[in-house]
Write a structure and sequence with these properties.
Structural class: mainly beta
Strand content: over 45%
CATH class of the domain at 11-35 and 62-226: Mainly Beta
Number of strands: 47
Radius of gyration: 29 Å
Shape: elongated
Helix content: under 10%
CATH architecture of the domain at 11-35 and 62-226: Sandwich
Strand order of the largest sheet: 5-2-7-8-11-14-15-18-19
Distance between the termini: 27 Å
Length: 582
Amino acid sequence: MHTRKRLFLSIVLLLLASCGSTPVAPTAVVAVDTAVPSTAVSPTTIPGTDVPNTAVPPTPAPTLPPLAGQVVDIVNDVDAHPLPGGAWEDALVEMSIYLGGEVWAQEASTARVQVAEQLIRVAPNTIFSCGQPDPNTVRIDMQEGQMWLNVEGQDPGTTYEIQTPDAVAAVRGTRFSVRTLTGGGTLVSTVGGTVTLAVAGTTVSVTAGQQSTVPVGALPTEPVTMTLEEQMRWGNAAGAGLDVIFPAVQSVASFSHQGYVHGSLSPDGRFFLGTYYLHKGGEDHESGNLTYDVVAGEFISDVTPAQARGRKYSPDGQWIAYNNPDEQGYSQICFIPAAGGTANCVGTGQIIAGNPYWSPDSQWVAFYRFDLAAGERYFNLYKVRPDGSELTPLTSGQENAKAAPDWSPDSTQIAYVVRLTPPESSSQPLGELWVMDADGSNARMLQDKIYGYTHPYWNPAGQTLLVRGYEDEDNRGMWLVPAAGGPAERVPGTEAGDFDGEWSPSPSGWPLLLPVYGSEPNQRTVYYYSGEGQPLQTFATPSWGPIWSADRQTVAFGDVRATGADEVTTVYFMHLVPGFYP
């Protein structure tokens, strides 16, 4: 049996009807199980006779404590003891949790519990229990870990108390999170309503989109805009249903660097290959490469030449592919061992080649190129081995450019875009979505009316492609296109705005992650879409991202901030708990 310490201070959550409303007398209490087991006693005589009844009266059934809540769903290893002092057992969906019972989400696990009309999402490595110190108050104990709560629609005046070691908070409104910090302290963030933190007579109000920290033995900090790190943690409890769109966060790391920084991750998420751009005024700028060791927290030496661009690790981590431009504007595709060594380059002369994309089995790289000396005007697609051998053309012809190759998850097919010559009325090249077998055969068009600069994204099952398209100039959107052919489906809510798209790291790829640029430089909002009939929901507001490692266990986001005439980029890395998805 597991035991744990009692907690020290409490977070009191007074749920009011709306922000700024006047407190009213409690009008609702936590729903309790008021059914009383029968305690009827046998009659003193046998019915219908005068014979005394000598049978022993039945023992009254024990009275259960009031019902506190019910388990709604479970991911992986979640334990519970429904009654106070009971033995731990596997938690089950629809299991009742009584006052004094506990729920324990273990490593790489989470549970969602309904308490009265409210939802609670429990983070991994978190234990919580419910108590009821008076008829109008529910007390939730949590010594360490994280919980997200949705109290939308709560009757006015109902009181919750969440006990953590460091703070007291009064909450008006909707959804908020309470997280204990490594080394002590508590962080509270909210995506709706107002949280009032109170410690030693000092209070601060944390409004929607803000966070505040209560250090050990100190007063709460002034609220600040929610950091990108905290926004990312809300991916464990997104939307009104507290849905998991990013699995459990194991840790978050970051670094900052001058300029606009962008890049890619190694397949295990340990290394970040970045390129930075520093503005020098006008069109003048300085650029360079960096390699960051996420685990060690330090920059390390690059193995690629300084002019390398578009660097990408092979999925097996053995090679780095990159564009190798020269001073005349020509470029090659090159490969270098990830540990360093001699590069293999493809193409000499007046060749322009770029954008290498690895096959998931690491056997090939697809890329675009054309030969000016041969009179070519448009890109075609090629593939090549990482040792520079077996250069193979995949498309041909000079009617239109072919670009943006994306391999199917099983490495047997390649989706790509055919960029059509744009009409004068169009703001950008229009295009078509095609797919072919990995040797270039069996090419067929899947969808017309897509944008020429879009990139197709296969879902993890290899059944559907996500791509940006249009019905007309005023009716755009992200489209789901069946890889086997058939009608495409537009993602609702993406009709306006320059959306991009990406799949989640779940086995199905759902929900969709949909970044869209805002009206300000380096401003993006990432929405998510859970499926048919669901509205778009806001997830985070990075400058770029998500960028995934090949094992889908690490994701990178960038936050670019102006600093005078230049910029500073903070790159965040979120490591997901291994084993969250089967």
